[in-house]
Prior knowledge:
Helix content is about 30%, strand content about 25%. It has 6 helices and 15 strands. It has a 5-stranded antiparallel beta sheet. It is globular and about 45 Å long. The model has no long low-confidence stretch (mean pLDDT about 95). It binds magnesium ion (MG) (2 copies).
Amino acid sequence: MIITKTREEIELMRESALIVSKTLGMLATEVKPGVTTLHLDKLAEEFIRDHGAIPGFLGLYDFPNTLCMSPNSQVVHGIPNNTPLEEGDIISIDCGTIKNGFYGDHAYTFTVGEVSPEVERLLRITKESLYIGIAELKVNNRVGDVGYAIQKFTEDAGYGVVRELVGHGLGRTMHEDPEMPNYGRRGKGKKFIEGMVVAIEPMTNMGTHRIKQHRDGWTITTKDGKPSAHFEHDIAIIDGKPEILSTFKYINKALGIETDEEDAFRQELLTV
Ligand code: MG
Ligand code: MG
């Protein structure tokens, strides 16, 4: 059952989402060669608590840390450890918070120093696919419309769409209805309604879409060992249209990246 939120509740959810956005923004300049994911995890936990929130992943389904840290061929759910990041790595950081009883859930794949043009392209396409999916999140569209749009764009670019892991509704629990796969068929699945809040999160592999689960019960890597990227936003449906509650602007500011992707996305909606 989809649990819709009032305008007031959506504003509270925006607060949770923004704390995650600021946490990722804080981490953006800390991600560099020689730093361990465990160190970044500690920084994030401190930052979240300093902002009056609770780390949302810590203890959730018994996850041991604040951040899911998934380098290179790890898709998602990587556990922070003492292995230093190296020049040319990528690191997908997924972060959750609880504030005012609501979850925020937000992810970004960072580069560690310089990465190859092939890897740059994987990150760019994955992030673009997120916005392409979000544009389909409007009243009377269906879950399959978002999945189809992301899958088509991703596969046309030559990449694999992970099937086993999906986006989800978000609220007082981390995973609510509906499941939001990054693949699907137009016009299929649950219909979107006013006041729903979801996390859309393409997980995109440079090679095969197939994955393998590791013995620690958490870590998931690509089957062929090629890199994987992950970007995630929290989005509410307000006045029939998608409103992104999280933002990459803190990351972009920290890294000196000039982009109008979030505004351009809104502009596009206005002209529809
Ligand atoms: Mg997440
Ligand atoms: Mg999520």
